[in-house]
Fold these 2 entries.
Entry 1:
Amino acid sequence: MPQVRTLLSTILLPLLLVGTAAARVPQDPPSEETIQFFKVNCFSCHTIGGGALTGPDLKGLHERRDREWAVRFIRDPKAVLDSGDPYASALASEYRGVVMPTLPGIDATLAGKLYDLIQLESGLEKSRFEGVQVSDRPLNAADVEKGRALFQGSKAFTAGAPACISCHAIAGIGGLGGGKLGPDLTAAYSRLEGRKALVAWLAAPPSPVMQPLFTGHELNEDEILAVVALLKDAAGRGEREADSTSLTFILLGIGVCAALLVVFDLAWRNRFRAVRRPLVARG
Ligand code: HEC
Ligand code: HEC
């Protein structure tokens, strides 16, 4: 029966393999839109194969959760948690009560495409969403200084990214002169939950304003570490300065009041004199 065996190996076997491969791997390659959506909306909290950030590493999601569950969760994490879903409750307590935000504009189709993308990327040797692997060496005063120079623009970013000060202020830099387009970054280090998440954030800023300016002009590893060092330093400084700032305002207030009193006093003294002097002179 050699023909049968040939038939098996040349036609049926490949067909069979294609069949099972198709069942495991999503058929359509992910669209550029889906990739971009993940990059902007998910990548700041999730890597695929690069370890946990604010949220879990999504590598192998399809082995943990089926598509239907993932679609529901991605669309509205809080609703799934509130429904008493035991997996979501366990996940939320593992992430110390941090619940994934409900992102607007995700319908079932998009959520399904994201699930497929995560599955496809999970199967790759190295996912494009592994994230930057930045050293976790201790940060020092030289890093803070370098970060300050980069932030202010006295030192240029290697790939030509714009200086942060054009849009941001931070404790100790900028003050009233810092840019106003972006938020004050004094609390960013604690708000974005520390070094690892901030590194991921800076490697690919998900901000709609920053993203187009930094794409193709990414900060390199040393620059990221320097900026992180600056933001960490500013977070500590911000707490220490909060008290002295309110004191400054009170003192400034008292000073302004005193100055106004003097000014009014001078202004009114002349008017009083102008009334009183003729009276006195007459009397
Ligand atoms: C602000 C951070 C943040 C963003 C942005 C975010 N997530 Fe999450 N995600 C989390 C956290 C935290 C958890 C785990 C805690 C929980 O249950 O909410 C989580 C859990 C998940 C899970 C379950 C993971 C598992 O291992 O079972 C999936 C799936 C998921 N996210 C997908 C996404 C997708 C897709 C996006 C983008 C559309 C996204 N997330 C955006 C923070 C985030
Ligand atoms: C063109 C203006 C612009 C420049 C330049 C810019 N940013 Fe931003 N940044 C923004 C805006 C606007 C936001 C707020 C999010 C949004 O609306 O996109 C933001 C948000 C942030 C956040 C998140 C803050 C938070 O609390 O969520 C961080 C961190 C940040 N920027 C860091 C930087 C650093 C570091 C640089 C310099 C390398 C920089 N930015 C340069 C405009 C800018």
Entry 2:
Amino acid sequence: MLKRLLVILAVVASGAFAASIGDVSSIKTLKVERGLTEVAKGCIECHAKETPGHVNDWKDSRHGHVGVSCIDCHSVKKDNPMAGQNCPGVKGTDTYVSMLVSPKTCGRCHPNEVHEFQQSGHARAALQIRAKASMESLMHHYEGRGNPDLQDSPEATGCMQCHGSIIEVGKDGRPTAETWPNYGIGNVYPDGGVGNCKSCHSAHKFSIAEARKPAACASCHLGPDHPDIEIYNNSMHGHIFNAEGSTWNYDSAPDAWEPGDYRAPTCATCHMSGIGDLTTTHNISRRLKWNIWAPISKTREGGYETAVKDFENGKITKGNALAGHPDGSEAARSEMEQVCKSCHVTLHTKSFFKMADKHVELYNTYAVDAKKMIDELGKKGLMKKDKWADEAFKVWYHIWHHQGRRMRQGALMGGPDYAHWHGVFELQQNIRELEAIYNRRMKTGKIEE
Ligand code: HEC
Ligand code: HEC
Ligand code: HEC
Ligand code: HEC
Ligand code: HEC
Ligand code: HEC
Ligand code: HEC
Ligand code: HEC
């Protein structure tokens, strides 16, 4: 960590700092008086006119206050695959810049956060899509209709914005439209960096307060297959946040954000923040006991994520589906329970998790039965080749990917509408539908038209 000694400079602007955020016209006169090299000052002064939004966000950030400036994040060595001189301010000089800033750059000053991030399920988000042939065929063949010119748009406008992409650059070091821009969490950069720090701390504020609010997760964790923000809003914690969260304090130092600053937990409190004896972690998988996105939930005994390491060795892998706490699922659950401890008594927490875990086990009984029917139909040649046209496959997909995830996530995060109406209620209807198709096909030996 470069610490605060990093040139505490006064970025003095002629009247500009009094201006309110958003009023970008007033920062055109920004003058950097001391503490930075001439080149570094040049970036800020010219960009205050050319791209005032970036400078305005940056000058109000911690980085602005401690003198970490444009050049610290955007300048790269000439031989970096992302290097270019497409910025007119550096053309013909010996400075090379890239508009891509990979976690490798952040890691120069924040090595722990980057390291922890790489041990999390977030780190595999882009890699695992490319590692699976079934995902490629969904995005390009089915959704993109195999159209050579148009087949990349489903990934670029959808999946990639949440999962990230394997970013490709042209000869000029600039990223292709098929792979950038995006705010996806698991971006793989041409310099080998994996992850995306701006997914939660948007550029150029890089604010800790922003990342502590549910909004920082809600842009990805929503919708029919992972309605986490909806579940949160449905929970008693979300109820309290929505009633009074705008008055809470989000600015405490890392590890010092404690009950009192807030009355109910946000996503970050339970999955990341230091609270009580727990320390902050950028590994959002660390406190998870179950793997509840999977078709059949198992407890997480796989240690840390390994996708990044494999990528560095040149392989694209699916990642470690059971990654979590290095000491296994009970250690993970015990850390999660420590979160609750600051506000609830032991019996409250234990009883809550006892019934939530049973709901996961109940889900598994549905999934095992459904999978058995699908496998049997497959063995007997009673599934269509085009699985997205097969009624049995579609029902199975909704069982695990939609209703089943909602049922499990709703139970474990206290959202009754998702545990029940959008969850197990729909599941008991689905399993009947699947049984009917199964019985019909087994009896007639034919796939219905
Ligand atoms: C702490 C590191 C950091 C600092 C300091 C920083 N940037 Fe950035 N910048 C980023 C990141 C991260 C991105 C997002 C890149 C991506 O999408 O992969 C970005 C994106 C950009 C982009 C391209 C994206 C767009 O929206 O147009 C420009 C241009 C840019 N920054 C200019 C600047 C300028 C000018 C400054 C100084 C006032 C600055 N940056 C300071 C990290 C930084
Ligand atoms: C004399 C003015 C000027 C100076 C000095 C300057 N820039 Fe730029 N920069 C620009 C303009 C203009 C653009 C293009 C904006 C656009 O495409 O809309 C640009 C673009 C960029 C981009 C995007 C590059 C791309 O591939 O499109 C980055 C990153 C950037 N500048 C960073 C910097 C950094 C870092 C410095 C200091 C080392 C710097 N700039 C100095 C004017 C300047
Ligand atoms: C040259 C070193 C350097 C680089 C590169 C750098 N940072 Fe920082 N960052 C700092 C310093 C110094 C602080 C202030 C630490 C403090 O307040 O104790 C800071 C603070 C932060 C904070 C806390 C902000 C707050 O609201 O308190 C976040 C978040 C952050 N950086 C994210 C990033 C990200 C993301 C990147 C890469 C895009 C990055 N940093 C790159 C040095 C750096
Ligand atoms: C830019 C999109 C994005 C944002 C923002 C985001 N996530 Fe995620 N998250 C994902 C994706 C994509 C996955 C699935 C990764 C995978 O398994 O491939 C995921 C997975 C997870 C998982 C499960 C990891 C595992 O090991 O199975 C947790 C827990 C999680 N996110 C929590 C959070 C929290 C808490 C926040 C906010 C503080 C957050 N996420 C912000 C996209 C995002
Ligand atoms: C709105 C954001 C968003 C979009 C768009 C999105 N995903 Fe996801 N995806 C997520 C989140 C969040 C999770 C984590 C769910 C969980 O942990 O319960 C996830 C989980 C997954 C998983 C399971 C995790 C794993 O490690 O295997 C796969 C596979 C996946 N997504 C593939 C895709 C594909 C392919 C697309 C596009 C066709 C896509 N996703 C579109 C956010 C998104
Ligand atoms: C999933 C959302 C998310 C992502 C992605 C993320 N952060 Fe954070 N970050 C947070 C939250 C939440 C906090 C505040 C934790 C707390 O309550 O103290 C934080 C805090 C920080 C801090 C303050 C010191 C600390 O560790 O608490 C730094 C520095 C930081 N993040 C850097 C990064 C860097 C570098 C990356 C990219 C590798 C990154 N963050 C990616 C959510 C995120
Ligand atoms: C009260 C604490 C709490 C809050 C608040 C909370 N979560 Fe969770 N979350 C949990 C618990 C507990 C689990 C299940 C952990 C396990 O596996 O035992 C979980 C599971 C998850 C999963 C599923 C991981 C998987 O295996 O597929 C995701 C994704 C997730 N949370 C994201 C979020 C997001 C996003 C928010 C905010 C909108 C949020 N959580 C709010 C406690 C919380
Ligand atoms: C910052 C304090 C805080 C933390 C941390 C916290 N909660 Fe809560 N929780 C509350 C408050 C306040 C209520 C509302 C209590 C009431 O009305 O009786 C609540 C309500 C609940 C409820 C609804 C039932 C009830 O008694 O109202 C459940 C279930 C719950 N919490 C579970 C958890 C679990 C599990 C964790 C840890 C994963 C956790 N909470 C962490 C503050 C917290």
